[in-house]
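Sample 3 of the quickstart, ligand 4'-deoxy-4'-aminopyridoxal-5'-phosphate:
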Amino acid sequence: MRLADRALQISPSPTLAIDARAKQMMAAGEKVINFGVGEPDFDTPEHIKAAAVDAIRAGMTKYTPVAGTVELKKAIVQKLRRDQNLEYDPAQIVVSVGAKHSLYNAIQVLCQPGDEVILPAPYWVSYLEQIKLAGARPVIVNTAMENGFKLTPAGLSAAVTSHTRLLILNSPGNPTGAVYTGAELQALAEIILKHEMAVISDEIYEKLIYDGLEHISIVSLSPALKERTVIINGVSKAYAMTGWRIGYAAAPLPVASAMADLQSHATSNPASIAQQAAVAALAGPQEPLGQMVAEFASRRDYMLERLLIIPGLVCNRPGGAFYLFPNVQAYFGWPYQGKVIRSASDLAEVLLDEARVAVVPGAAFGNDNYFRLSYATSLKNIEDGLNRMAAVLAMIK
Ligand code: PMP
Ligand code: GLU
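Result:
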């Protein structure tokens, strides 16, 4: 049967693929340490689960408005005001099946064939595919480790053409953990405002931020930026709710309306029960979040400390999210069991086969000189995994 060109050009999500492979090995009895997927290992807090159970009992089992219940949209509007001092009308909020779906909707309604989308690399895997699915052309701008993997004004300026339609920003970022300061965003904003481009600001890791750093949304810099930016956020990361699938966008009204119309034909509303759980997450007690952030911070410190004593590995101290992104080029060119290691992908394969440690090679994020380790796993796993990694890497070089 013939598949559409659109289908033929999609690559499956490498992060989810690595997770699936690690889980398959675990199911077969292997003791794999999974630093692959970015998913909090904590359980969803009790009061959030209770809200979902209550919703089922109360019969909230029917279709809701396509873009989300009035209650959830209100909770999101209040969250944006409380945490970020941003004013939105409920009509500007669209709730979707995870932040990934929110991004998909936004890119679909903003981009078309002939458009260029500026994507700073290393980038999260799904942006690239979603840009291509909209028929637009990704314009990848490499960022440097020395600049904390952040897009510079010079990098942005050099990438802009008359076809530029959109810039994707992600702070705190996946896979590097980069956090943009207000001044850095301001410098980018000056260039953005000189052109016709829109911005997607993916703020899914907003709450997972360390060392007293502050999350700043580019939207907060000026009304003109608010007019052309779509904020993407959700409950997956901050509230350990990856499986519930609730994400949302806050956008200029015409964009929000178009996203809701698209969604009305694709999925309709996200699950009514998960929406009630998201209300409890956003409007309820925030203490569980504080505990998770403190735990992530100490895991980051420990994993980084262990990583940096492995000869040859170089790694920034990330300010947010839950990933480390070390440069592993020191291991390239050395043979292991008769095969020369030439990339982070080769090295990741050795680590999975020999150390039973799953990591995501940087090829997935546009730079195969690095790999990504998620520290959204227990300290014990981090200790075991780093012991195993160090032992195998010591045999290579
Ligand atoms: N953006 C980034 C940068 C992410 O890492 C993720 C995690 N998969 C998402 C969006 C999507 O999150 P969700 O699980 O809510 O779809
Ligand atoms: N954001 C996570 C990651 O990058 C989840 C996996 C995915 O959705 O691709 O690992």
